[in-house]
Design brief:
This protein is mostly helical. It has 2 domains: 10-43, no CATH class; 51-96. Helices cover 74% and strands 0% of the residues. It starts with 9 loop residues before the first helix and ends with a helix.
């Protein structure tokens, strides 16, 4: 007995359905409800960017915004590094 759409034995088809459902993080029932067209659309979510064309001025503005946005992250990392070094200096002073 084979599935008419895929021309595969039913057991193989069921295993592939379960594998596809795990890949998308949904149940087999949700996979059946979505159907093949919707599944193909979900599979098209993967994107590979090969080139970005951006004018120089826009890139400068983007990079300035990126630097400004990274300042709070750097402050947080500095505070975490300071908090991590306090115990090390304390124990280092005890060992001397």
């Amino acid at each position: 007995m084979t599935d008419r759409k895929r021309n595969e034995p039913i057991g193989v088809y069921d295993a592939k359905r379960e594998e596809k459902a795990r890949e998308f993080g949904i149940t087999v029932e949700e996979l059946d409800r979505l159907g093949y067209r919707e599944l193909d659309r979900l599979d098209d979510r993967k994107v590979i960017v090969t080139d970005v064309q951006m004018p120089f001025g826009s890139m400068v503005v983007f990079l300035v915004k990126l630097v400004i946005a990274s300042i709070p992250a750097l402050i947080i990392l500095a505070v975490l590094a300071f908090l991590a070094l306090i115990p090390l200096t304390f124990f280092g002073a005890l060992l001397q």
